[in-house]
Amino acid sequence: MNCQRFEQLVSELARGQMMEAEVRSEALAHSENCEHCLARLRDEEKLTRGLQLLAAEMETLEAPAEMELKLREAYRTRHVAAPVAANSSGNSARSRYWLVAVAAMLLVALTVAGMWWRSEAPQQTVAEKSPLKPVETPIVPADPSGSQESVSPTQPGSQDVQYRAGNEPPKRPTPKVNKRNSVTRKPEAQLANHATNEIATDFMPLGGGDVNAVVLQDGGQIIRVRLRRSELLRFGFPVNMERYNENVKADVLVGVDGLARAIRFVQ
Amino acid sequence: MTLKNQFSDNELLRLMLAGDEDALAELYRRRQPAVYRFALQMSGSKSIAEDVTQEVFLFLMREGHVFDPERGALSAFLLGVARNYVLRRLRVDQLLSPLGDDGEEDGAGLQASIDLCPLDDLTRAETIETVRRAVLSLPPKYREVVVLCELQDVSYVETADILGCAIGTVRSRLHRARALLLTKLRPAESVADADSASVKSARCFA
Ligand SMILES: [Zn+2]
After folding, report:
1. Domain B1-97 carries which CATH code?
2. How many whole angstroms from B167 Cα to the centroid of ligand 1?
3. Is the ipTM, as predicted for this complex, more than 0.85?
4. pLDDT in tens, A135-189
5. Chain B neighbors of A76, CB-CB under 8 A
6. Is residue B49 less than 8 Å (CB to CB) from chain A?
């Protein structure tokens, strides 16, 4: 046994891992005659003891008791509200079909109503006269997550179908600011339940993607974070260089797959 | 009354998916501590650990049917799911620093903040805290093998299953992770020659 071979074995030796008896005794014999390798073994053993202490210290830790209650509640909701949902990929496809159908009918009805309104009320403002295009909103199961930082989408109500002037060219995310409590909130703005007077920008996709596609999934979460003001530059916002190192608040929209999909800045 | 605690994990999962709430409760009680501790040891944050634990079991309720008992134990499956949630959460937090509302959050952002120590003089509590911080400062791919193999006492085989890699990879990452830990726990004066970490001793570690 040489020092190099000993080095390959020293962690396993210190962790008391299974190894051939002959190899073990050769390694130990080497360490008795090699000061350097003996020191290595002692340090590895100390590391093992330190890790064992840490493991023992954390051994009894577990999630808070109320989590079981929350999960049970979520489970009940799931099984009462959607008793056949577990094996129903076909059903969910069917329900999506119906949602699309309902949205389409609404669109037709509102377009007709809009045309009628335009002919009946010529003094309407430009924005109101524009053909209206519905923006789909998330339809999600009740999400039991009660985390402080996460905000679950809610069931859409009647105002959940949003309308936007249909002739507008598609816009890149711009530093447009929405009053979060305004009546014509974006669907993504409805995700937040912070009933405050905060002002937020629109959600901007991270890594290219459609924000609406994210919220149209089964759920998703908004995580409130703080980040460097300098990050604003990446999204095309002007940054006061004197406040470059300060933090700003932002909401990150995380999809059901756990990936961060979009961000908005909050003031 | 059915004694659910006599059922295997797989039986409990099957019952849970069929609508048996007690099966969910038993499965949760049996498996949540490992999931919670894994998330806590990976993130250093109680709130992340709680979120992840909740997400893992919500996922199991929603997608439990994707578990294939042929491919490994449910406990490993749950840790694999927890790992995905933790890593994604850490990636978000790496991009964006957390709000830090409870003062305990020191997980992912704890780079190089370890007090390189005279560990010989440390009390048990100090040793634990120093080691905890050293583990948290490891890059995630090394941290996860330390958490699984050293702190959770998961076998190499199961760890490989959870991480989706070969056993040899687990072994070599653990070796490297331990060398990194020793480097981090080494007194400041020997950090200069940290390059040879894997063949030098960490004199201060007790
Ligand atoms: Zn030697």
Report:
1. 1.10.1740.10
2. 27
3. no
4. 232 222 223 233 323 322 222 222 222 323 333 333 334 344 443 433 333 333 3
5. 21
6. yes
* pTM of the full structure: 0.57
All CATH 1.10.1740.10 domain ranges of chain B, comma separated, are 1-97
**What is the full DSSP assignment across A98-119?**
HHHHHHHHHHHHHHHHHHHHHH
Residues of chain B with CATH 1.10.10.10: 116-206
- Does A149 sit within 8 Å of B47, measured CB to CB? yes
Domain range B116-206, CATH class: mainly alpha
Asked if residues A198 and A267 have their Cβ atoms less than 8 Å apart, the reply is: yes
Selected residue with higher pLDDT from B172 and A95: B172
Residue in A with minimal Cα distance to B59: A256
| Contacts of A160 by beta carbon, 8 Å cutoff, 6+ apart | A137, A187, A190
Alpha-carbon gap, residue A162 to A185, rounded angstroms:
8
Taking the Cβ of residue B178 and every Cβ of chain A, the question of whether any pair is shorter than 8 Å is answered with yes
Q: Do B178 and A11 touch (CB under 8 A)?
A: yes
pLDDT digits (tens, 9 = 90+) for A58-110: 999 999 999 999 999 999 887 765 444 444 444 444 445 555 555 555 555 55
Q: Which residue from A50, A83, A247 is facing B127, i.e. has the nearest CB?
A: A50
CB contact under 8 A, B24 and A147: no
* Closest chain A residue to the Cα of B34, Cα to Cα: A62
Q: What is the pLDDT of residue A189?
A: 35
CA distances from A95 to A34, A140, B2 (A): 73, 12, 36
